[in-house]
Amino acid sequence: MNIYTMQLNYKKIFWTLGLLLMMLINSFPSAYAHENLILEMTSYSSKLLKPDLTPNIRIFANGVIEIYRPTYMKKAGLFSGQLNQEQLSKITQLMDSLEKFDVIKAEEEYFMADLEQKRLTGQLYYSSETIITQFKIIRTENSLTSEKFILAESAREKSTRFNQLEDWKMFSDAEEMMMDLKKTLNLTRIGEAN
């Protein structure tokens, strides 16, 4: 077993454990629980001793959006807003793109690009912080609900280092689009942080 295979096996174990952990965590109570939830995003830093794994952003089929800011952030709490039809349409397109994201393939491409850069330059790269992001896509058709979890680490960093890696750029753009919603919407406080 070479170092490449060992690192890929480590990544698969990490994603599996992370996914299981996220599935076990109860979502925060929603003021809009009766509406159909279509998308959640949870993002946190590996530097946090005890990260708050409550979803940061939840989007419902009717365009309602909930933004959660943990207690360690300024303006902590649970906030709500409303997406317009254009924003909701972009969210649907985002969900379609995310469902095609293959994290194992993307990690392999990143590993190979990093290996090639080390070979060419002799430089090693190290990041002291890992940002872990999970998207949960919920689809309901004919009274059947399916959930898909997409978990990745440091997508923005990977897409910045190697901008030719399209999968990481797409994932990073998805993170950025969701974070931009926090800044652009008129939000109302509806609860406190856990």
Architecture blueprint of SSEs:
Elements lengths: L2 H22 L12 E9 L11 E4 L3 E6 L7 E6 L2 H15 L3 H19 L9 E11 L2 E10 L1 H7 L4 H19 L3 E4 L3
Antiparallel strand pairs: 1-2, 1-5, 2-3, 3-4, 4-7, 5-6
Helix pairs in contact: 1-3, 4-5
Output mean pLDDT. Answer: 83
Oligomer: single chain
Strand order of the largest sheet: 6-5-1-2-3-4-7
What is the H-and-E element order? HEEEEHHEEHHE
Number of domains: 1
- Sheet/helix structural class: alpha+beta
Largest sheet: 7 strands, antiparallel
User: In percent, how much strand structure appears in the residues?
Assistant: 25-35%
According to DSSP, the number of beta strands is 7
Instruction: Report Rg.
Output: 18 Å
Q: Distance between termini?
A: 44 Å
Unreliable residue runs: 19-34
Helix content: 40-55%
Please state the overall shape, judged from the principal axes of the Cα atoms: globular
Count of individual helical segments: 5
Structure in words:
It is a single chain. By secondary structure, this protein is of the alpha+beta class. The chain has one domain (3-26, 34-186). 42% of the residues lie in helices and 26% in strands. It has 5 helices and 7 strands, in the order αββββααββααβ. Strands 6-5-1-2-3-4-7 form a 7-stranded antiparallel beta sheet, sandwiched between helices. α1 runs antiparallel to α3. It is globular, with a radius of gyration of 18 Å. The model is unreliable at 19-34 (pLDDT under 50).
Keywords:
194 residues; seven-stranded antiparallel sheet; 7 strands
Question: Brief description of this entry?
Answer:
The protein contains five helices and seven strands; from the N terminus they run H-E-E-E-E-H-H-E-E-H-H-E. It has helices spanning 3-24, 85-99, 103-121, 155-161, 166-184, and strands at 37-45, 57-60, 64-69, 77-82, 131-141, 144-153, 188-191.
